[in-house]
Structure formats: C-alpha cells, structure tokens
Amino acid sequence: MENLVYKTLYKNGKIELEINKSKFIASSFPIQNQDQAIDLIEEISNQYKDATHNCYAYVISNDILVEKFSDDGEPSGTAGLPILQTIKNKELINTLIIVTRYFGGIKLGKGGLVRAYTKAALGAILDAKIAIMKKHFIYKLTIDYSHKKNLDKVIKEQNLSIENLSYLDKITMEIAIEIDKEDEILRKLIDATKGEINIEKIYDLYKPFLVE
C-alpha cells in the first residue's frame, strides 16, 4: 500500500563516538529502495574496510515492507537488531543506518554492545534530522491575465509555491498541492477564475517537511 505521508531522514547524517576505547562511526541515509541500500552498505564497508565491524539495518516501505539487519560478526542480536529497533522506535521508513566499529581492546559485553550501537544509531538519526514526507500532485495552470490577481490571492492564502511561471499569450505556472487538500484547493482555483482556467495534473512527488 502506498504511503501518502511518512517519516524518514531529512538528509545524510554522521557521528563518531568513543566508548571504552572502541571507535564507533554511525552513518545514516534516506533511501528509496533496496538496491540503493545495498550500494551504500558496500560503499561504507569499502570506505572502512579496515574496521572490525560494519553493522547495519534498514527499513524500506514502498509496495511491501522490508526490514533487514546485519551484526557483521558481533554477537547475535547486539548490533544490527538494536540499530533496526532504533529506526523503528522513531517510526522511520526508507532509512538506512550503518555503524562502523574499530575495536579498542576492551570487550563491552552484550549489554554494552546493545547500548553502544543504539546510542550510535540514535546519534546518526539526530544528526540527519527527521522529515515528514507528504505526497503532492504537481498541476500546470493556464489562465488569462485578467484572472491573475484573484489567482494570486488563492495561492497566497493556501501557501502554495509557484514553479515555471511563464508570461506569453496566457500565463502558465506549476503548483504543488498536498493530496489531502487537492479537492478544496482546485475548487478555490476554479472559483477564483470563474472557471476560466485550464488545470492539468502532470506528475506527483513527495515534499519533505523538517520536524523541529
């Protein structure tokens, strides 16, 4: 089922921690599919190929939900699973976190490893920040010059952004409308121009809204 609204990372994130002489490097990424996750895991593993462990977890939800993790040699359930649980606790999807560890000579124990990987994963999320992704439809509007003032009023009231504005024989522009406001805003646009407007839906996209 398609997600009309979901939470993911706003950007890539990265932090470094030292815990009992072990160095942890946590890298986080917003992703779109499993191929992208696999490529990034390979890239980070090659970047830190001298590390003791490169553990990871990711959650992807497009047509189906995919959850995967790896302990990469750490005791079972002490690395990849805590990373995955941290992602799920923040209710994130389309998110990948890789935590690299350089062993410092002091064993942390199972509980210590779980806490360390959880702390690293959470830090990488906080560094990347969280975004709410909302599905929007992009519409192309065409109007006569006589309707511009009234149309501009609706656009301002609804806090819509304009792209590809063109002044030729007629005025054309593109606007993004959030899916759950689509009917209401289209009705306002039609009313503002007395029906003398050409409205063409051209594509859809997800727009990020940063969670403060």
Automatic annotation (TrEMBL):
SUPFAM superfamilies given in the database record: EF-G C-terminal domain-like, Ribosomal protein S5 domain 2-like
Domain (UPF0029): residue spans on this chain: 141-195
Pfam family, one: Impact_N
Cross-referenced InterPro entries: EFG_III/V (IPR035647), Impact (IPR023582), Impact_N (IPR001498), Impact_N_sf (IPR036956), Impact_YigZ-like (IPR015796), Ribosomal_Su5_D2-typ_SF (IPR020568), UPF0029_Impact_C (IPR015269), UPF0029_Impact_CS (IPR020569)
Cellular component aspect of the GO annotation: cytoplasm
One GO biological process term: regulation of translational initiation
Residue ranges of domain Impact N-terminal in the record: 21-124
PANTHER family: IMPACT FAMILY MEMBER YIGZ (PTHR16301:SF20), IMPACT-RELATED (PTHR16301)
Similarity-based family: Belongs to the IMPACT family.
Name of the protein in question: YigZ family protein
Origin species: Soehngenia longivitae
Phylogenetic lineage: Bacteria, Bacillati, Bacillota, Tissierellia, Tissierellales
